User: Fold this.
Amino acid sequence: MSNRVTLSVSGRGSDTDAPTVEDFLGQVRDYFDVLAQVEATLAEDGESAIEWRIVGASKNSPLSIEAEAFPRQFGVNVDRRSELVVENVAAGLRQLHQAAQRPANFNNKALTAAQKIFDRVTNGLEMTRFEHGGGRPAIELTTSIARTSADHVREVLAPKSKPYKELGSIEGYFRGIDRDRGRPVFLIRHRLTGDEVKCFVSGEAEREISIREIGEVWKNRRLQVRGTIHFKAPGRVSHIDATDVRFLRDRNELPDVDDIADVDFTGGLRSEKYLERLRDGE
Assistant:
């Protein structure tokens, strides 16, 4: 099932493959931290709706546990969200072995937790295995795979590059307003990295921010900021000179099927007749 995950861990020892308590609990904690951080990045409001609960355990070699996604709020369906989270985490862990490139929806906290997972396999553990259900192949971390993956994470988190700037846009969550050396500025939490980014505003962007209310900060409103983006390094934003700000609508404000469906768009014609006239230009 795509809403279940299995984590297996084996240690390295002369007379046993049982992991130490510290290593096993560390792998469990950091793996579920990766899941939580990826979920927060995927969520429109940056908040978690999933609660992972242990539903199975095995003492066979290797030691393993199975967890299932449950909703934090009773009656909420989290099947689709858990499927997206598991899919992104599985793809991200594979990508980190292949290249020093940030996986989709992995913020810095997710990368840091993943690095800890990889480092333990190179220092004390023999193997860590992840099974993500849904027909996806299992991911098995051995010493060589984990070492390469950890090196790639370090390159993503601390790239060796000079600062640069470019025109573009980023998405984030509204955190508040302030002044910096006399200049009006607002703060956002970057959707991908989780970094807090200063956005210096002028013109239309300043007018858009000036009419906003405190409640929009408390609600973690999601927004898109466009302008000159100053980077510390690839993928790491220093600050933005914002020229345009667009607040994105909440999910409950988006149109549903009833809003966009027109039950009489054929004007009373049967569908095949309507398509025939459409092809004939009538």
The longest helix spans residues 21-42. The two ends are 50 Å apart (CA to CA). Residues 163 and 232 are 4 Å apart (CA to CA).
